[in-house]
Amino acid sequence: MQRSINFLELIGGGKIPEVLIGTWIVMGILIVFGLAARSSLAGAKDPVMPEEGMSFRALCEVLVEWLDGFVHDVLETHDYRALVPFFGCIFTFILFANFFGLIPGMEPPTANTDLTFALGTICFGFYIVQGFRSQGASYLRSFLGPYLPLAFLMLPIELADNLFRPFSLGIRLAANLFADHTVLSLFTNLTKLIIPVAFYALGAIVCVIQAIIFVVLSMSYVRLAASHEH
Prior knowledge:
Blueprint: H1 7-12, H2 18-42, H3 56-75, H4 84-100, H5 113-135, H6 151-190, H7 194-227
Helix pairs in contact: 2-4, 4-7, 5-6, 5-7, 6-7
């Protein structure tokens, strides 16, 4: 009799890994956030005109406007707006996953290399696609270096450089979030008064900065691939 495959045993030794649970929770929060934002916009009398005062819709519009300007300032291309949804999703997911670690007793999913390498691989595939979309088959020319007689030397260097990018993105994010969460847990356990508040504030800043760094590096790779700047 053929034995059925237990996928939980394959991915987590018979139990669901914590990083997967944390990732699902963050995804669920973002889905609810997105549906609520859509409902708020659909229920507006005039979706084009901004609301007066502070509201959930106004908060979402501020976030979208900031992401639009953020992507524009880094890419500096006319067609940047087509890339805002992708980088906006990556940024908000990483940001929420980072902040998840500030909840007492919770581990940030982005402190696990399994998730950060997956995010790096997604960004790697995305900028390769953008390179071919912008330059066609001539994008392969960028792997040969600026001087063709030295292409046999430049090709392995360029391949190694490109293949290492998703790993560098993943390691940088995971290492910084792991260190931040470890320091936060250590000082929170030592004292329950003023010091933890200061480290929570510092941890929040680290969460934002690391999300920005990851997305800025990813966008710079897309810009290089699309414009062939070296």
